[in-house]
Structures are given as C-alpha cells and as structure tokens.
Write a structure and sequence with these properties.
Layout (H helix, E strand, L loop, with lengths): L24 H44 L4 H25 L1 H21 L21 H14 L8 H60 L11 H26 L1 H24 L4 H27 L8
Helix pairs in contact: 1-2, 1-3, 1-4, 1-6, 3-4, 3-8, 5-6, 5-7, 5-8, 7-8
Length: 323
C-alpha cells in the first residue's frame, strides 16, 4: 500500500491555502514513480558494475590459488568458472533489462517534474523550453514528451498573483534551493571520501606488490632458502601475492572509473556555487512577477544542467564486461 501523496514529495512545501492541494496530484504521482524507479535502477546498476569488477578480481585470485593449494585445483577451477559465468549473466541481464537507461531517463524526468511544480505556479509550463534549449541532445524524447504532457494536464493555478502569493512562491523556491544545497554539499563530501579511500586502498595493494617483489629479490640475492621441496615456499607465495594484489587493485580502479566519484563530487561543488549565488540574488530581489519567473527559470536550468552533465558522463559508462 502506498502512502498518500504530498506536495512535500516534490521538494516544494507550499503553504499557501489558496493553492488547491489537488493541483499537484498529477505531478506528484508521476514524480514519485520516476524518482522511485530511478533510485531502484540506480542501485541495481551500481551494484552490477561493482559486482563485475570484484568478481573479475576474485576469478584471478582463485586461478592463482592453485599455486598454494594444488590439491584443490579442480574445485578452484570450477569456482573461477562460476565467477566468470556470474559476470556474463549479470552483464547480459543489465543490458537486456536496461538498468543503465532506466536509471538515467527516470532521474531526468523526476528533475523536470520537480522544476515544473514550481514554474507552473508562475504560469510557466515549459511547453517549448523543456526540449528546446535545456540540453536537448541529452534528453530522450519520451522524457520531454511526458513532462510536457504532465504540464498540459496540470494547467495553471486559479489564484490571484499578488505580493503575498509571489512571496509564498519565492519562499518555497528558497526552501527547494536549501534542500538542493544540503544534498549537493553532502554528495560532494561523500564522493570525495569514496574516491580518497578507494585510491588509498589501490595504492596499498600496489605498494604491497612492490614490497613482495623487492623482498623476494633480497632473499634470492642473499642466498636464503626460498622453500623446501614438496612444500609451498616463498616463491609460490610471492608469485600469488604479486599477481593477485595488482588484479584486485585493477578491480578497485575499475570501480573508481565506472563510478566517477571524483567527477561527481566536482559537479556537486559547481552546483553548490551556482545555487548559493542564485539564492542570494533571489532573496535580495524585489517581489516582481517577471523577475521571480526569471529566477525560477534559472533554478530549473541549474538543476537540469546538473542532471544533463551527469547523464553525459554516465551515458559513456554502460554496464560492460570488465577488462
């Protein structure tokens, strides 16, 4: 059972009693579907590419484990084949079910509908600009069509646009900006931490590889025993480690590259700067219809440009076989 739709679901907590609550019903319902769908497929897609890279690294480790445990070579081979099979199944499922496209398309639609919720209050339904000037090349056709169809069905509110009404719309726009600022500040911090930690983990693995190679060379040149006949010796251990660690490090790099954590953090920082500047201007403005309408269009452009830039980046990163 779904919970009752609220205007707050759109990030536009309007409190003017002159606005009919049903005015947002169509927008809220479609926004909720698009937002939920995007979140679901975004999680599935991210889980898919992380699993692919980690399974690829694990397959290498299993293949090398035969050096340390030759008696278990057969089950290790079966396990390695299992990892490869899971990678193939996961990749084909992602392509067939469109995880990547559904994630991006529904996120774009959700942001367009959230912008529409505010702009419609000022008589701007965006019937032309939705796919005209706002990064048209990045917006799939059905997204723009559904956004325009929703705008037509929503129509315009039956209210008198006086100073109190303009103040209400402006206050709600400021609240939406504050919500977006909080999200992007947290996202920038989160992405930077992920990038730093994954980069550090990769450096540790490659550093350990260098240490293993140097250690083996020192033992070899020193004439120290590298193992005993019939038993796993230092040579086998070093061979395993110096092959497995770079493979796992490469898997981590693949996750970093696919996830674009550094780029995501940077885009959020840029969006924070633009939103903060717009907020200052909006609060300082005189309450005039055309001026406020222009600010709302700028807010919509900032939000949709952020999504378009994100989409452009991830469009080139579909779910593929690692390697």
């Amino acid at each position: 059972m779904t919970h009752p739709l609220k205007v707050e679901d759109l990030g536009t907590p309007l409190h003017d009693s002159r606005i009919d609550p049903d005015f947002f019903a169509i927008i809220a319902r479609r926004y909720q579907v698009a937002d939920t769908t995007s979140t679901h497929f975004g999680q599935v897609f991210r889980s898919g590419f992380v699993s692919n890279y980690l399974l690829a690294g694990l397959a290498v480790v299993l293949a090398l484990s035969g050096l340390l445990a030759p008696a278990f070579k057969l089950p290790l081979i079966f396990a390695e084949l299992g990892c490869v099979a899971l990678i193939l199944i996961n990749t084909q499922a992602g392509k067939r079910l469109g995880w990547h496209e559904r994630w991006m398309d529904n996120r774009h639609l959700a942001e367009q509908l959230r912008s529409l919720a505010l702009s419609s209050l000022m008589g701007d339904l965006g019937l032309r600009s939705t796919t005209g000037t706002r990064d048209a090349a990045a917006i799939p056709g059905w997204v723009g069509w559904l956004a325009r169809a929703t705008a037509r069905e929503t129509g315009l509110p039956g209210v008198r646009v006086d100073e109190d009404y303009l103040r209400t719309v402006r206050d709600d726009a400021v609240k939406l900006i504050d919500d977006q600022l909080a999200y992007h500040r947290a996202n920038a911090t989160r992405m930077q931490k992920l990038e730093h930690r994954l980069n550090g983990l990769g450096e540790i693995m490659f550093g350990a590889t260098v240490a293993g190679c140097v250690g083996w060379i020192v033992f070899k040149l020193s004439g120290l025993p590298l193992g005993t006949k019939g038993h796993v010796g230092l040579t086998e251990v070093v061979t395993f480690a110096t092959a497995a660690l770079p493979a796992l490090g490469s898997a981590i790099y693949g996750v970093r590259n696919q996830g674009d954590f550094a780029g995501g953090g940077f885009r959020s920082e840029v969006t924070v700067e633009r939103l903060a500047s717009l907020r200052l201007a909006m609060v300082a403005d005189r309450l005039e219809h055309q001026r406020l309408l222009a600010r709302l269009r700028s807010l919509s452009d900032i939000m949709l440009s952020d999504v378009a830039n994100w989409r452009t980046t991830f469009k080139a990163r579909p779910l593929t076989l690692p390697g």
